[in-house]
From TrEMBL:
Occurrences of domain Chalcone/stilbene synthase N-terminal (ranges): 67-220
Source organism (scientific name): Podospora didyma
Protein name in the entry: Thiolase-like protein
Region (Disordered): 396-449
Membership in a protein family: Belongs to the thiolase-like superfamily. Chalcone/stilbene synthases family.
GO terms for MF: acyltransferase activity, transferring groups other than amino-acyl groups
């Protein structure tokens, strides 16, 4: 295919998107409840309970509460147990998200040509995408691809894969309407992580960050009749940070999967942002003159943790307002791995998010970014259609909230004396001076797997 001579000439458009969260919202004391119910007091358990109060997450979306049967067995649930819950509680979320995205796209099930899906919290054959496609009534000839091993970058990896499939259909002169789907059920692994914290006396903070969600987008190659796009997909960039396989991952285990998260992750991800961004911009020479510096764009950053977001601010010279939907999603839902990025993009087009744009100016162009195992970096450029949006949520916010930068999701933990000073109160925001003192004492001693 020839190099585009007009911006958007690839013809790739997101026609609809949706996120579907489960009904339960876990506050930080949910982890306290299970920790005290099944494990004795220990230094590592006290540390994770304290960190859990300062992640900046108000609630994590979950398929259940601390009384759910799968997290109240004598032993942590097996992979078989987790799979059953993934299918019974997770797949319906994916079906609902898909239906919402297809409805907004005005794409009938008979028009869907491909399904590109991802998950890192289940592994079965056939994959969950088979059952979603069956429930949606998709044709027997629909081409399906299920990505595994992509972790938190899976949403954008699936979008990139769908984009290349779209371009293949364009070369053949055929319309493509691709359902891109992400589903994660992470909160059921809390017992497994608590068991490791207790047995190994490791400070494992994944249980304080991860949540459950399904999200979907419909990507089109523009051939045939279609509605106005929500976003145009203009380009993408993918790269691997060399020799970082042991820094970020999700290892298989008889009782589920174990989060791998080294103290190097925030600095590694921060260091790769600028070169990835430069390569993306270089690939899009037809961008308008006013869009060159990172602050010229809005950002849909996967909220892997508070330090991932604050690290992006430092590396790229942007503000929390540039990533307002990322912060909002992180605070209200937590990190839902691959499904989060589409939720962020959906949230970004809300009127209450527009009201928080930096300098009061909503950007036409958006940089999407996520990090995954490898460490892999996914970045893309989107153009927002300002004539297509969503109404403000009924619980609109009056100002942008950002979590305290405790760095708890990667690099360190306070001393036990600091924990006693913090007390046993529920989650609260730190004042600036208090936050800096907490960080300076807190971030030296932990080693995470």
């Amino acid at each position: 295919m020839a190099v585009p001579t007009v911006l958007g000439e690839l013809g790739l458009s997101i026609l609809g998107l949706a996120a579907e969260y489960p009904p339960f919202s876990l506050k930080p004391d949910a982890i306290d409840t299970l920790a005290k119910r099944y494990h004795p007091d220990s230094p590592a358990m006290r540390k994770i309970i304290a960190i859990n109060r300062y992640t900046g997450i108000d609630t994590r979306s979950s398929i259940g509460d601390p009384e759910h049967p799968v997290v109240n067995q004598a032993a942590p649930p097996s992979i078989t147990d987790l799979h059953k819950v993934f299918m019974s509680d997770g797949v319906p979320l994916a079906i609902r998200a898909s239906r919402k995205a297809l409805a907004e796209a005005r794409v009938d099930s008979s028009q869907v040509t491909h399904v590109v899906s991802t998950t890192c919290t289940d592994s079965a054959n056939p994959g969950y995408d088979h059952y979603v496609a069956k429930e949606l009534g998709l044709g027997q000839g629909v081409e399906k691809v299920l990505l595994h091993g992509t972790g938190c970058s899976g949403g954008l990896a699936a979008l990139r894969t769908a984009a290349n499939l779209c371009l293949g259909h364009t070369m053949r002169g055929k319309p493509a309407r691709i359902l891109v789907l992400a589903l994660e059920v992470s909160t059921t692994m809390v017992r497994s992580e608590l068991e490791s914290i207790h047995a190994l006396q490791e400070t494992r903070i994944g249980i304080a960050l991860f949540s459950d969600c399904a999200s979907a987008v419909v990507l089109s190659n523009g051939l045939g009749d279609e509605k106005e796009p929500v976003y145009q997909l203009l380009g993408w960039e993918h790269r691997i940070i060399p020799d970082t396989e042991g820094d970020l991952g999700f290892d298989v285990d008889p009782v589920g999967w174990k989060v791998v998260l080294s103290p190097r992750v925030p600095k590694l991800t921060q260091s790769v942002l600028a070169p990835s961004y430069a390569a993306l911009i270089d690939s899009l020479p037809l961008l308008p003159a006013g869009y060159r510096a990172p602050a010229d764009f809005d950002w849909a950053m996967h909220p892997g943790g508070a330090t991932i977001l604050t690290g992006a601010e430092k590396a790229m010279g942007i503000t929390p307002e540039h990533m307002r939907a990322s912060y909002d999603t992180y605070i209200n839902h937590g990190n839902s791995s691959s499904a989060t990025i589409f939720s962020v993009l959906d949230r970004l087009r809300s009127k209450d998010m527009d009201a928080l744009a930096p300098e009061g100016r909503v950007r036409d162009f958006i940089v999407g970014c996520a990090f995954g195992p490898g460490i892999s970096v996914e970045m893309c450029m989107l153009k927002r259609n300002m004539t297509v949006g969503r109404a403000a949520l009924s619980s609109s916010i009056s100002g942008l909230q950002t979590p305290p930068e405790t760095e708890s999701e990667a690099s360190s933990v306070p001393s036990e004396d600091a924990f006693e000073t913090l007390g046993s109160s529920s989650t609260r925001r730190l004042e600036t001076g208090e936050q800096e003192a907490f960080i300076s004492e807190a971030m030296d001693s932990v080693e995470l797997d």
